[in-house]
Amino acid sequence: MKRKPIVGIPRALSFYTFYPLWRAFLENLGAKVILSSATNRDILEDGISETVNDACIPIKVFHGHVIDLAERADYLFVPRMISADGVSTYCPKFLGLPDMIRFVGRPLPPIIDARYNLQGFPGGQFRFFRTVAGQLGIKNPFKVYAAGLAALARHRRYMGLLQKGVDPLQASGAVLENKPYRARTSMASTNPGEELKLTVALLGYPYAVFDPYINAGIYDRLNKMGIDVITFEMIPERELKRMSRTIPQSFFWYYSNQVCWAGLYLLENKEIVDGIIHVTAFGCGPDAMVDKLLELEAKQAKVPFISLSIDEHTGEGGVQTRLEAFTDMLRFRKTKQEAAVNR
Ligand code: SF4
User: Fold this and answer.
1) What is the whole-number distance in angstroms between the Cα of residue 8 and the centre of ligand 1?
2) Do 236 and 123 share a structural domain?
3) 232 and which of 77, 160, 184, 262 could share a cystine (Cβ 3.0–4.6 Å)?
4) 91 CA distance to ligand 1 centroid (A)?
């Protein structure tokens, strides 16, 4: 019997938004999908050795994940992410990612490099699916269409779980393998009125917020401190769209817009969070603007805000100290506000 082709998906960048879609589609076509290991020291060091110094840490880590898969996979899945909403594009580093990966100085299996672009005429998803299938040698349009439709259904369920506050790993397990899941926080269950219970927005690109190795486990640290966490994935899409109409000009980049609109929504609905933490990658061009905009808007709205910049030198001690200082200040502020109301 013919062996199934093994397709390796790097656990970085678009993985956090699209893993169930990619995996379900590839498996429906008859491929076996493997994932790179969770980010670790070897992956980071391999990534650093294959990239230029001033690349952001998510790009460095992506290279490390590719190397982790190189000897285990028949193909590497590195789509060229251009536009997921038909309007904005991904940052230039995403656009050039397959080209960067081809210059990795080690032997690599063939790269599945299809353009994911929902701009222009309709049917972008299926154009993408056809190209991926073609690169695996599958031409039957009915098989490709059926595989794509089933994968899109999984993707919709996954996005629904993210919106309910389930983290990407648990949500993927639930959608792909029917594993049990539990929302860490939900917009409906946060209770700002509860005495000294804090709710914090953790805003940033999903690959910076949900990879605990590169951000020194910020999400888990906040949970361990008993703090509810809101991420941009939890803000309803219609509200993000509404916020996009409140500013004269949105950014050019997809994730930057999601973070910016989510921040503006939370600043408009100040009762939802006690403070905002922006996780930003050192050396990220788009974030230089997003961070400043959020900082200025938060100052105007009088909502506490800090930005935590991550790079390969980010240490657990430094992150913990800053989180404790910030959340102590939030508790002090909340105590004072409640005392003023009860006076
Ligand atoms: S948006 Fe920023 S952090 Fe993300 S890949 Fe581009 S430069 Fe790196």
Assistant:
1) 22
2) no
3) 262
4) 6
* Euclidean distance between CA atoms 237 and 242, whole angstroms: 9
Is 1 a member of any domain? Answer: no
The answer to the question of residue 34 being in a domain is yes
Distance 150 CA to ligand 1 centre (A): 30
Same domain, yes or no, for 204 and 172?
A: no
The answer on 116 and 51 residing in a single domain is yes
Which domain CATH number covers 217?
3.40.50.11900
Angstrom distance (rounded) from CA 163 to CA 232: 8
CA of 78 to the centre of ligand 1 (A): 16
Q: Are residues 59 and 155 in the same domain?
A: yes
Q: Range of 328's domain?
A: 199-342
Q: Whose CA is nearest to atom 2 of ligand 1?
A: 284
How many whole angstroms separate alpha carbon 165 and alpha carbon 157? Answer: 13
**Index of the ligand 1 atom closest to the CA of residue 56:** 8
Q: Ligand 1, closest atom to CA 207?
A: 4
- Is 210 a member of any domain? yes
| Backbone torsions φ then ψ of 40, nearest 5 degrees | -145, 180
- Tens-place pLDDT, residues 260-270: 999 999 999 99
Q: Quick check: CB of 205 below 6 Å from ligand 1?
A: yes
pLDDT tens per residue, range 241-260: 999 999 888 889 999 999 99
Listing from the earlier edge strand, what are the strands of the sheet with 305-310?
Answer: 228-230, 199-203, 275-281, 305-310
The count of structural domains within the chain is 2
Check pocket membership of 287 for ligand 1, CB cut-off 6 A: yes
Which band of pLDDT confidence, cut at 50, 70 and 90, is reported for residue 186? low
Do 338 and 204 share a structural domain? yes
Q: How far is CA 149 from the centre of its chain?
A: 23
Residues 256 and 135 in one domain: no
Residue 274 inside a domain? The answer is: yes
Backbone angles phi, psi at 253, to 5 degrees: -110, 135
Strands 115-117 and 199-203: unpaired
Q: Cα–Cα distance between 254 and 241 in angstroms, integer? A: 12
